[in-house]
Amino acid sequence: MPLVCVCSPKGGVGKTTITANLAYALARSGSKVLAIDFDVQNALRLHFGVPLSDGRGFVARASESADWSQSVLTAGSNMFVLPYGDVTEEQRLDFEQRLTNDSHFLTRGLSALLNYPGLVILADFPPGPNPALKAMSQLADLHLVTMLADTASLSLLPHIENHRLTGGEPLNHKAGYYFLINQSDSRRHISRDVTAFMQQRLGDRLLGIINRDESVAEANASQQSIFDFSAASAAAFDIELVSKRVAGILGIKIGDGAVHAGLRTSNF
Ligand SMILES: Nc1ncnc2c1ncn2[C@@H]1O[C@H](COP(=O)(O)OP(=O)(O)OP(=O)(O)O)[C@@H](O)[C@H]1O
Ligand SMILES: [Mg+2]
């Protein structure tokens, strides 16, 4: 613990990019971090240097193994990734049915990871309602709902407020849910207007605004974090700030590597 979910009613808004870069930001601050992929696109691993040809992941083995930590890959000195993996349609459906029908399936799979001292877990989800997101609502400490500064995102705000992402249940039962506006562009009228409206409507629930920044796409293309690719970029600054706010909400110690130095990295 703690466990943070990055989700959205909308696709292509930057969930995977933000999950990966928040993981890098928290790891840079001294936390031991695990990023988990619940999206069949299996794209999160690409942000951690896992080759496209490497189809390993936890979903294909989820029906046989109750402990998903066996599928964790090391992605750096204090950074780990649990890829969804390449799966058949049958395996995907089986995984989703277990998530829907067995209320302990997710807790069992994550148990070893949730009990690992000091481990910060970030989970990435497919867009819209999905069985993994629904199952996670009981377990997660915090949800970050990612939106764009456009009218399509604005029109989906009531979906969040009416719990449409989780079939009528509250999205989060602990610290709650906060919003991120991604790809904000102050040169565009509509982006400025929507950002201002969301700031007013969401108030303290708006945890951060991340600028539209070409360095982000370029960092993704070169499989690097925004901090390694362009530490001075606007997006690097914005994501760093979001990571500090997340750490503040969850009481994660930052900037003190010594706190975590005693943890072993070989247990996964
Ligand atoms: N702040 C940003 N500035 C510029 N480009 C960005 C930014 N954030 C994300 N992108 C780009 O937007 C695209 C979508 O990002 P990403 O794949 O992370 O979205 P997603 O919400 O995970 O998508 P999906 O719903 O398909 O899972 C990518 O090409 C990414 O490089
Ligand atoms: Mg994604």
TrEMBL record:
InterPro entries: Cellulose_synthase_operon_BcsQ (IPR017746), DNA_Partitioning_ATPase (IPR050678), P-loop_NTPase (IPR027417). Pfam families: CBP_BcsQ (PF06564). This is Cellulose biosynthesis protein BcsQ. It comes from Dryocola boscaweniae.
